[in-house]
Amino acid sequence: MSFWQGQFGGTILALVGLCLGVAQAQQTIFNVPSPDVTAKGEVFLEYETQFRTWRPGRFINNTAYSAFGLGHGTELDVTMFNVNAPSSGDITLGVGLKKTVPLFPKRFPRRELKLTLGELVPVSLQGQGIGNWTYAHLSARAPRLKTRVAVGISTGTRQIFGRTTVSAIATLEQPVTKRLSLQGDWYSGTHALGFLIAGFSYAMPYNTVLFGGYQIPNTPRSGRQGFVFEFAKTIK
């Protein structure tokens, strides 16, 4: 796939994501799965593009997330990875489930204690085989500040991470106003998602949410610094 073909593919994914619905909650913070789960009967759509600082090599990385709420804290996830320019030669379609389990909801209702579990099966559309991605984290919210933190573990294969890897994962969300929140996430390790990403989310008119951030690699082996932008919508 040429540079322009990669850009065209990413643009198509973006237009699909922007035309199909309205946003309520984010199912990833940036790259780490969120404690939020799509409500029963709703469809969640999110488009992400990463612009790496320019030098020879990969420049634009596009990912399209979608989820369908199944009820009982469970959603069906379908994600398209690695629509890049220049091409990585490994466009991958992942299908799986994410589930959240409330912990002590009656005893600590304001703390929103949750266990989040997920499994995704990534299938390379360009001959790189079938892999897996399994993750789990615990999350909680500080009642007064409304800060939400999640910590956990992730393991996955080359179709998503560039190689088989096991990582610690963490997220942080801090509401500032009704519309604006600060947020960030992190994967440990030196794989393709080994970044700290910090930024914001902003609720825009027409139930659209904009996300922006900046990514810092754990080491140069993970990649380069760059900007991250996302749009999210939910169809009820």
Strand content: over 45%
The rounded distance between the terminal residues' Cα atoms is: 36 Å
Radius of gyration: 17 Å
H/E series = HEEEEEEEHEEEEE
CATH superfamily: monomeric porin ompg
Q: What structural category arises from helix and sheet content?
A: mainly beta
Major β-sheet strand ordering: 1-2-3-4-5-6-7-8-9-10-11-12
**Main CATH class:** Mainly Beta
Q: How many distinct helices?
A: 2
CATH topology, by name, is Porin
Shape, please? Answer: globular
In the residues, how many domains can be counted?
1
Give the averaged pLDDT, no decimals: 87
Topology:
Elements: H1 3-19, E1 43-52, E2 60-71, E3 74-85, E4 92-102, E5 114-124, E6 133-141, E7 148-156, H2 158-161, E8 165-175, E9 180-187, E10 195-204, E11 208-217, E12 226-235
Antiparallel strand pairs: 1-2, 1-12, 2-3, 3-4, 4-5, 5-6, 6-7, 7-8, 8-9, 9-10, 10-11, 11-12
Entry summary:
The protein is built from 2 helices and 12 strands; from the N terminus they run αβββββββαβββββ.
Descriptive report:
The chain has a single domain (3-235), classed as monomeric porin ompg (Porin). A hairpin with a 7-residue loop joins strand 1 and strand 2. The protein has two helices and twelve strands. The chain is mostly beta strands and 236 residues long. The protein has a twelve-stranded antiparallel barrel. The chain has helices at 3-19, 158-161; strands at 43-52, 60-71, 74-85, 92-102, 114-124, 133-141, 148-156, 165-175, 180-187, 195-204, 208-217, 226-235.
